[in-house]
């Protein structure tokens, strides 16, 4: 068995045909992490014993003749802002360095029920705030294609683990692009589902009106399998939605997918895009045209304001959500405070890294009396205009295609001193979460960048609850 | 556009103690962000309703029934650095060193 060639779909077939056991597969992945992760730094916590035990249970279920879920025995990497009972969940912050989860996140509960295997918890930017994992309090995750470059972020650990063959698939969370951007940088598939489709219960909250959990996989077909396993209404998340999935959503017919019209938003093809990205996106469009898809130019006029809107709304929610990390709960590294206020001041100063502080202060500002209307309320109004742009465009087309990022993976340290330049790397991924729509990053191939080669991807954005559209087109694209 | 005093005030509101160097850096970083935000003034939003987010913007109700806590009290307490007799322990809100209120927890 060559784990490099495995997919979720082929693993399932192999288990049923008894070509290999779940235990053998998991052991191969454990070995791969042992051998490679010192160069990549994808993992923060390993779960070797639990993983082998879970795989052994899958083998026992096979031996007992039980019906097997497509995810049974699939070795997964889980971003360290999701809770697995009894395992640390640090969110890559000193503030939560020793926090051990007392319960399972809903997505984990669902995957345990499917008998998936968890290999460990992966690195991220602290509290999922960043585009490179350089904001992790522990270490930087390197891009498996070029160790001098970032894996992207914030879910860089899960993306790199899948890309480097250190997990068959993974979970990430996306707030402004934190699944799609690292997927693009690492050359794997990453999808942010429609807001509310996947429960956020047990996901350490960053910006609650934007956060959404989604899959990292090697193929679009695998992303579909993992997405369907984690979606669903959850009583513990009042914003989760009971989406009634029609057969079309599970297994759309090719001839129906082929009828979908693809929009090209002119505002996404701007100056400053790296030539390798332009080439990659053009290649994807050419291939889709060959498959028979029709294209139409559309306009999303408020696109250029998305970054400002995002960097007002997101920090506002961050400053609110992170208020709970006060030194009373989870950790108290600075001891000896005589008064409660002193305890807050010292522990939050010690526990939060620079980017977290920056966003908490920015959020505190835009929510403060006197500035609320000028910033926060204004941003919420423009957010509606951004959503309405998509509503209008989706009257003319079914799906929108764009680049994922303006450049391929950048160098480690290149953008750390200038937060605004780091934020600008998210311009194409921010609009979808503001509008709540699903979006997927699909790799094209590697292109020459400098002296090496780096992956380039394209993005498909769909209507609310139309994951089937973007997954369907993606599957046809990768079959070609 | 943002003064050092305002940065200090924000840090105090956010309960984060900053060093002098951090205050200077944050003053610079926040000013750059506020400059960027100026572009929003170009857009007339007089008739636009704010959007709080999400995809289905209707209220979600559940039945008003008793629910049991999934996490045992003892397991939850494990996540807190200091506790006593099953309760969280924190320093006093107001304190006068050695005074009668100082020992209250």
Folded structure, characterized:
The complex is a heterodimer of chains A (480) and B (105). Chain A is α/β, with parallel strands linked by helices. Chain A has one domain: Amidase signature (AS) domain (Amidase signature (AS) enzymes, Alpha-Beta Complex). Chain A contains 17 helices and 13 strands. Chain A has helices spanning 8-16, 22-40, 48-63, 106-113, 156-163, 180-186, 220-230, 247-250, 254-258, 275-290, 306-321, 340-351, 354-367, 372-396, 419-423, 431-435, 467-479, and strands at residues 43-46, 75-79, 117-122, 142-143, 146-150, 169-174, 189-192, 212-217, 261-265, 294-298, 399-403, 439-449, 452-462. In chain A, the strands form two sheets. An eleven-stranded mixed sheet of chain A has the order 1-3-2-6-8-7-12-13-11-9-10, with helices on both faces. In chain A, strands 4-5 form a two-stranded antiparallel sheet. In chain A, β9, α10 and β10 (294-298) form a beta-alpha-beta unit. In chain A, α7 packs antiparallel against α17 (467-479). The longest helix of chain A is centred in the last third of the chain and has 25 residues, at 372-396. Residues 98-105 of chain B have low confidence and may be disordered. Chain B has three helices and two strands, in the order αααββ. Chain B is flat and about 55 Å long. Chain B has helices spanning 4-13, 20-37, 73-77, and strands at 83-84, 87-88. Chain B has a two-stranded antiparallel sheet with strand order 1-2. The two termini of chain B are 43 Å apart. Chain B has a domain at 4-42: Histone, subunit A, CATH 1.10.20. Helices cover 31% and strands 4% of the residues of chain B. Chain B has 105 residues and is mainly alpha-helical. Chains A and B meet through α11, α12, α13 and α14 of A and α1 and α2 of B.
